[in-house]
Prior knowledge:
Chain A is an alpha/beta fold and 163 residues long. Chain A is built from 5 helices and 5 strands, in the order E-E-E-H-E-H-E-H-H-H.
Amino acid sequence: MKVLGIDPGSRITGYGIIQKLGNRLLHVDNGAIFTDTSGDFPQRLHKIYTGLTEVIERYQPDAMAIEQIFFSNNVQSALKLGQARGAAIVAGVNAGLPVAEYTALQVKQAVVGHGKAAKEQVQQMVKILLNLPEIAQADASDALAVAICHANSVALRTAGKIR
Amino acid sequence: MKVLGIDPGSRITGYGIIQKLGNRLLHVDNGAIFTDTSGDFPQRLHKIYTGLTEVIERYQPDAMAIEQIFFSNNVQSALKLGQARGAAIVAGVNAGLPVAEYTALQVKQAVVGHGKAAKEQVQQMVKILLNLPEIAQADASDALAVAICHANSVALRTAGKIR
């Protein structure tokens, strides 16, 4: 099973593709889509959409995973983040992918083993679990983390250990 | 020139199509896309995207207009609204439409003549300007209002009266 994890943002949208083969997690690719902040906002959303659509066409993942967001600094940033997230999710569902959402707690538990892990611990564990040469760019690392969370929770569901 | 106005929301997305012929504004159609609130959120975003894409294919507008949002009740609703808005805007830019954003003040000024108009006054003026038999559904009416704003501001720009 190949999973595309995404960490959307109005300036930087991280993505990470991993493959689960049996019990092994393999890193396929990761990267980030940078939107030109001087451009108009609809065009920035378009860039997120087309960038992720290209990633999906190239790697043909079986599912998309994304962190569920409940908080933001303020209403302004929530509106911007929401729009970026909407563009990203539409890229997934338009490509026919099931889109799974996970809370930050679920992602941390899946990657580090407990829900109180610091951001740096998550990045370090992503590097170790996927055998990366170095810690990935922050947004790409977060995207890989939610992809790992999805791959493991699907495995657990399949094994009947969680619903 | 044919303009598609939209008023996105995570539960109801209003749309309205008008045509400007010389100085005349003609109503083409209006309606609303209702998303099933029991469904998962990515599928709701997909419904907004596909619903608007169908409207664009049917009426072939020259531009999309949308109200710019700065405020929301809270971060939660801003995130939801943002995602709906992102899905709607991507439907426009993916269809090759220029997407114009207007503030609520600009929309009220364009439709009623001053920026302090109440919601009911805007709805009443939309009905009168477009010769509707009755006031349109609230979200569709708001969508028609921003379409009127765009049609008139493009006319003013073309006439060199505003930049």
